[in-house]
Amino acid sequence: MASPAPVRGRPISTAEGFLCGGLAACIAVTISNPAEVAKTRLQLQGELAKTGTAKVYANAFDAMGKTYKNEGIRGMQRGLGPAARRLCLPNTFERVATGAGFYEPFRRNINKLVGRRPEEQIGATAIIAGASSGAVGASLGNPLFLIKARMQAYSPALPVGAQHYYKNSFHALSTIFRAEGLRGLVRGIDAAILRTSMGSSVQLPSYNLTKNFLVSRDILPANSTWTFLASSAVSGVCVCIVMQPADTALTRMYNQPTVPGPNGKMVGTLYKNPIDCLWKTAKAEGVRGWYKGKRIQLLLIEVSQQHRIDGALFTNRTTYVCQHLRPSPSLTFCSIITLTANDLIINLYKKIRDNDN
């Protein structure tokens, strides 16, 4: 007995969804990576140098232009390997590594501890849950973030900051592990926790407060796209102001050279911890040094905020992209491109598949 013919227009299977989602994620990270390279190099430019030092890059666009001119496409896509692996992981680990999978359980349990209903939205518990989930996510994703930052900073033509040359992600991980052991792979984890906790702690509360303000005063309706966009824009500015100093400290902590300490363990030559980094940066470069690369960072955050903090603007149709709070703006920016590309790829795939049937 012949098997029934496939039904035209049937939903895609899980396997098909994984393939389409993986392709979409690869496209997204390839598009957004040059901006990340520029941001990383701007944050390292003039490290601990007094104001007035000659700049290699004038701004983000100049950084991308000079990188392309001197290093070609390969230079603009440095760190693409770990960035792609970071984004294209299966949904379960992706949610864990970004802290998204922990946010709701943390928030609900904290609500219970203070005697409130689990489903109730409370600003204080949202901040604590966001910071806690972000810290967990930052800890788990640290090795890939570490090698990504170092690979993006490397430039044979216009170097800024310490230079670490790695052939690929596996070479980077193995080189660091051989030289420093597991301690090397968690280098900068305190800065990662600080950065992610600060960003996560203000993202959702600032979004909700802005949205409630607009709705309660009848400025915009509750379910309007403009309400979501306005709330996300305000939240993005808040995240950038609060998180950017820690983001700069993170990049510098990751990239600083290391030497053997008195106890034989490898230690950073410039900074002891993220607070020490922020203090030395402010002392040498002023507070403005904390906000190097702020324009490209704000762009990444603002675009990523439009992804929606509670799913109102975009529907996630791939298991590769987190639907909730994302502490990393570049990854969320990737998720927007991923969602768009995913829909286009799925529609094209369905069309080809159904025509073949």
Automatic annotation (TrEMBL):
<protein>
    <recommendedName>
        <fullName>Mitochondrial oxaloacetate transport protein</fullName>
    </recommendedName>
</protein>
<keyword id="KW-0812">Transmembrane</keyword>
<dbReference type="InterPro" id="IPR051508">
    <property type="entry name" value="Mito_Carrier_Antiporter"/>
</dbReference>
<keyword id="KW-0677">Repeat</keyword>
<dbReference type="GO" id="GO:0005743">
    <property type="term" value="C:mitochondrial inner membrane"/>
</dbReference>
<keyword id="KW-0813">Transport</keyword>
<keyword id="KW-0496">Mitochondrion</keyword>
<feature type="repeat" description="Solcar">
    <location>
        <begin position="121"/>
        <end position="213"/>
    </location>
</feature>
<feature type="repeat" description="Solcar">
    <location>
        <begin position="223"/>
        <end position="320"/>
    </location>
</feature>
<dbReference type="Pfam" id="PF00153">
    <property type="entry name" value="Mito_carr"/>
</dbReference>
<keyword id="KW-0472">Membrane</keyword>
<dbReference type="InterPro" id="IPR023395">
    <property type="entry name" value="MCP_dom_sf"/>
</dbReference>
<dbReference type="InterPro" id="IPR018108">
    <property type="entry name" value="MCP_transmembrane"/>
</dbReference>
<comment type="similarity">
    <text>Belongs to the mitochondrial carrier (TC 2.A.29) family.</text>
</comment>
<keyword id="KW-0999">Mitochondrion inner membrane</keyword>
<keyword id="KW-1133">Transmembrane helix</keyword>
<feature type="repeat" description="Solcar">
    <location>
        <begin position="16"/>
        <end position="109"/>
    </location>
</feature>
